[in-house]
Amino acid sequence: MNETVKICFGLIGGLALFLYGMNTMSDALQKTAGERMKKILSFLTKNPIMGALAGALVTAVLQSSSATTVMAIGFVSAGLMTLPQAISVIFGANIGTTMTAQLLAFKLSDYIYPIIFIGFMLQFVGKTEKLKNIGMVIFSFGLLFEGIEIMGHVMKPLAGSSVFVDLMAEVSSTPVLGVLLGGVMTLVVQSSSATIAVLQNFAAQPAADGVSSVIGLTGAIPILLGDNIGTTITAILASIGQTKNAQRTAIAHSIFNISGSLVCLCIIPLFAQFVQYISPSGREIDVISRQIANAHTTFNVVCTLAWLPFIPVMVKIVKAIIRGEDKNLKAAYEPQYLDNNLLDKPAAAMYLVSLELERLVGLADRTLNQLKLVLDSQRTAKDYEAFQEDLMILEQLQGRVTEYITKLLSGGYLTEQQSEETARLLFVTNNIQRMGERCRDMDEICRQVVAQNRVFSSVANEEIVKCITLAQSLLSRSVEAVKTGSKEMVNDIFRDTDQMRRSERRCNKAHLKRVKAGECHAHMTPYFSDLLYNLSRIADNCVSIAEEADTGAGFAELHKNAKKMGFVEGS
User: Do 149 and 111 contact (CB within 8 A), yes or no?
Assistant: First the structure.
């Protein structure tokens, strides 16, 4: 086989193994550290320093700045995070992503296969999901380094190639070419960690003297800067179709990396000297990988420290670039919080589902309130249209929430515990759906009453309205019980549900007495009874929701973390 073809095959094969190891390790880390990640996010406050710290820690845990960036953009789009908060988180994410390059700088070639074996055995024989995930993290970590070793092995002949040496000399003498090369590489691979890993391996190849790097630190830095610019494409892509603030967050990410790269490009010799000063001494080919990792970390730390005091300035810049406010608000039946880009970030996605469920519950409460007006003898056509519209929105929104939860459950990113919590969220959603169906049944009853040109007596109407009010109270408290995990509230709901059943029996008996006394029409009896029956079933749905508080529904913990993160009132 042609030598060039061998090198190409080795490069793409090694890169594929590296990317697979990186992605599976990130997924396994999310499953292993999902709850810890939420605690790390709780550091997020209006303080930019803490926001940057949160971004750095989450990215270090997930081993993916793209994951943190997409998460921040999703939260901004949903209105859960302010633009300054998101910008500080993304600044920190740039620091966190340098952890990968630091890990790769360690010489682990002698330990790769034992690492892979240990990881495989833990994943293969592990009895618990947590142990299996830890095994997958270790196994993927080994694969990642094996990919690096393959790329390093096939790149050795390049050091003796006159064409390659001339190309590297051109890049070293013309830094802009290096920036373009790094940017294009990252745009193609969609992973700055991968391209920096390739750069570390390229640089570790010896020049003709066998001691110096084939490219050197001053030649590697421009490519490194290009890698940092190229990685911003992930944020840009994630912001497409999102709110203006989400787009501004992505633009801020680009400005952060581009501005820092332009400044660094002007002082490459000084920057290289500083990196060499803080890095281990020795032969260049032995320390160049660590130097590149330190250059990557230094660049992002310095840029973050330089920009943090000027976040208000950054906000003004991005608002000048992306002008105006969002005019086309989402349709009422469209989810306001759910973001498909976060389906592979279960901790964030589950939190957004809980917020959408709160909105869904509010809509169900409003629908019941509209029902009171529909039943009133003084109702207008406008009242009935409003009830119909709310009912349609409730049904469509519930369907969208169910679809999102189903995608989340089938995505393969959830731990066993997260799957159970998500299933409970789906159970709550399904009960709200049944409430909507009960309201639809009551709507049909109202239609039949109107078709016969009849109305309920004022006493009958008052009894129904009281039952609707009790149903509304049960609904709000059942969701509050799930949010807070309050056992006392659950017991109160059980008690009041019994009261609803007693009210149903008492109202039916009172209606029959009124019929006998000629105060109500006998033809209204089945309609009156059916309305009470449906309201009683809604009470049962509320009990089903409240029972989730007894099973430790994830909604409660999600809400607590939401308060800690400052996304809801009460923080």
Answer: no
